[in-house]
Amino acid sequence: MRVAYFTESLYPHVDGVSRTLARLFGTLERRGIDFRVFSPFTPGNDIPWAPRVRRVGYLHFPPYPDYRVTLPFTRGIASQLDDFRPDLVHVVSPTPMGYRAQRLARARGLPVVASFHTHFVSYFRYYGVKWLEPAGWALLRTFYRNCSRVYVPSVSIGRELETRGIHQVELWSRGIDLDGFSPEFADPSIRRRITAGEDVPVLLLVSRLVKEKDLADLVDVERILRERGLRFGLALVGDGPMRPALEAALPAATFAGHLEGEELSRWYASADVFLFPSTTETLGNVVLEAQASGLPAVVADRGGPQDLITHGTNGYVATANDTAGIAGFVERLIEQPRLRERMGDAARRSASSRDWEEINGGLVASYEDVISGASGQTAAVGDG
Questions:
Q1: With contact defined as beta carbons under 8 Å apart, do 298 and 315 qualify?
Q2: Closest among 50, 51, 55 to 39, alpha carbons compared
Q3: 126-130 long-range contacts, Cβ below 8 Å, gap at least 24?
Q4: DSSP secondary structure letter of residue 132
Q5: Does pTM top 0.85 for this prediction?
Q6: Contact indicator for 289, 261 with CB cutoff of 8 Å
Q7: Which of 42, 262, 276, 340 has its CA 20 to 30 A from that of 111?
Q8: E strands of the chain, at which residues?
Q9: Rounded to whole angstroms, how far apart are CA atoms 79 and 68?
Q10: Which residues have CB under 8 Å from 79's CB, separation 6+?
């Protein structure tokens, strides 16, 4: 099997998509599956699969300078694709490069699959252009209609796509590294930094600090808890354009900035409760990381994170944007240490069932199924 990937997110840029792809590429290498990656990012030589990456021209994306928008309209991509002779093309996002990859694949009779990582359309309402949502969904339907499979990270997102007229949906979930995230990383010095040495519960959020993470709800929840006289520490790990406003709104909180590796693991393990009000997640990798670290989580009932929580067992699922309801669940965890401990143990157990090799092995099996039925599926897609 030979697979060509087209993605705007790749190491050394670090986000949920690039981490997920790195895990997948490791599985492919161990299984002896050949692949090439077309991307505006080029990993360093310390990444084993770096020689398989083919760089594509790009522009910086003004709202988020760390992101890159590809300029895929060059003959080089087509010739490199022909030289590689893939059996399957996997497009990661509905970007100009993704559309170009679809056209190149269809012209060569190759099956195309896609994965849904980021809920871009849901972002519109946070930036005053909610009226663009119907057009956004129309574009997504056009894009994904030309794919034999659309891989989603959670059942909830798969159901939403189907209600929007996007079919051929299949689950490709996510695993977690139980050695990389564990209660054993707990660091008393971090707790002292957050709570000024007081013996109080620590609430943690790990996220990009942007509007679409519903961080205004976090501010409101913190206010409600303070008004109820509850004692706790709050820590935010991550960075982004909302940080100055959040620092002003949450003067008692600790802002750790962007963290990676063992330092990130220590902040997770040094907390007591994970609070994540975002309604725009396709899964919520940070929730998995918190669970592996032994933290109960309070999440919203919209998007992927709810699929990771068994309500009342390893955390709570609150009504989206109901800050009083969210605060009520957090209050229970603040006031009941034994409940926190019991739910934290259950969270760790739930994370232990998510093995990357098994999950990515299922994706490889799906690839094989698509390739074996490619002639019929490609004709059907082309007729659309």
A1: yes
A2: 55
A3: 126/211, 126/212, 127/211
A4: G
A5: yes
A6: no
A7: 42
A8: 2-6, 34-39, 53-55, 58-61, 64-70, 88-91, 112-115, 149-152, 169-171, 202-206, 233-237, 254-257, 273-276, 297-300, 315-318
A9: 23
A10: none
